[in-house]
Amino acid sequence: MSQKSGRRRRSSSRSSLVKPSLRLPRWDPPKTMDAVQAQLQDLRRELGIHNPLIGLDFATSLDPRPRWGFSQGRHALLERMIRAAPARHIDQLRQVASHLERYRAIDVGPLPEPPSRPVWINRQMTPLDAATIYATLVARNPGTYLEIGSGLSTLFARAAIRDHGLRTRIISIDPAPRAAVEEVCDVSIRGGLEQADLAPFANLAPDDLVLLDGTHRSFTNSDVTVFCLEVLPMLERSILIGVHDIHWPWEYSEMFTSFYWNEQYVLGSYLLGARDRVTVEFSTITPGLLPEAETIMAPVLDWWPGDERVWLSGGLLWFRIAPLP
């Protein structure tokens, strides 16, 4: 496919917040681990950092660089699972591309954060991720779309429901969604997944959808921990499950190293352990590995005014788990 002339390529940049008047507390060499923690807490208060500090007695790794797909090849077994049926990925891309006229009606953006309506250029997900949610809902017309973590994905889900007259109701589990998101939900469960009654999961039908886009971290009684150890076993009846910010068969990229996300590892272990019963329906990482992707997406790419790569890659994994025999 020939590239449009004059297509802009976006580049990432980093910016820093400078506080020239900041006065750091005087540092005295600590004598104990408790003293280290106390001084770090004092420093964080001075810097205005309020999220909890996690102290580690060992480094997370002796070589914390990304592993699979970077210093080594992609994770072979997970890649084989994800790419087991290329026809499914091709069909999904065709579904995504088929809604171009609807996409044209959505703002390219960016809009002021947080956006109050669907917008393609945003800080939360790539256009391919957002369009996949839209197209999947249209193709399946489920009775229920249940999200853990609501935001731009919710706005795109509501757009699909409105544009196509779907029967779908949106159930949102989120401790503090933005007002624009709250308005488009049919059922709002305000709190973390770890605080919620899990009955809505037990009541889902086989054609319903579940999407997790939460904290991306598995700790004691965190949303990821509850999802993997309690919710996923409840969904082992061919319900379509989506998890966002999953990059398999690649490792998290280096830009995420300081985030200490670990959801991908827990989910990857689950998928490998249940691989005889797991069917990967689609991964938005995969189009970059498919030679047909640009041809299928050509109408969208020809319309798109920015970097085409945002329509050829993302971080959303859709899969099903068959019940135990």
Describe this structure in words.
There is one protein chain. The protein is of the alpha/beta class. It has one domain (76-321): Rossmann fold (3-Layer(aba) Sandwich). Helices cover 33% and strands 10% of the residues. The protein has helices spanning 33-47, 76-82, 86-97, 100-104, 127-140, 152-164, 179-182, 199-202, 223-234, 263-273, 293-296, 298-303; strands at 144-148, 169-173, 187-189, 209-212, 240-244, 278-283, 316-321. It has a seven-stranded mixed sheet, with helices on both faces. α9 links the parallel β4 and β5. α5 packs parallel to α6 (152-164). The protein starts with 32 loop residues before the first helix and ends with a strand.
Blueprint (SSEs and pairs):
Elements: H1 33-47, H2 76-82, H3 86-97, H4 100-104, H5 127-140, E1 144-148, H6 152-164, E2 169-173, H7 179-182, E3 187-189, H8 199-202, E4 209-212, H9 223-234, E5 240-244, H10 263-273, E6 278-283, H11 293-296, H12 298-303, E7 316-321
Parallel strand pairs: 1-2, 1-4, 2-3, 4-5
Antiparallel strand pairs: 5-7, 6-7
Q: Any idea how many domains?
A: 1
Spatial separation of the terminal alpha carbons: 47 Å
**Beta strand %:** 5-15%
Structural class: alpha/beta
> Strand order across the biggest sheet?
3-2-1-4-5-7-6
* Element order: H for helix, E for strand: HHHHHEHEHEHEHEHEHHE
What is the structure about, briefly put?
With 325 residues, the chain is of the alpha/beta class. The chain has helices spanning 33-47, 76-82, 86-97, 100-104, 127-140, 152-164, 179-182, 199-202, 223-234, 263-273, 293-296, 298-303, and strands at 144-148, 169-173, 187-189, 209-212, 240-244, 278-283, 316-321.
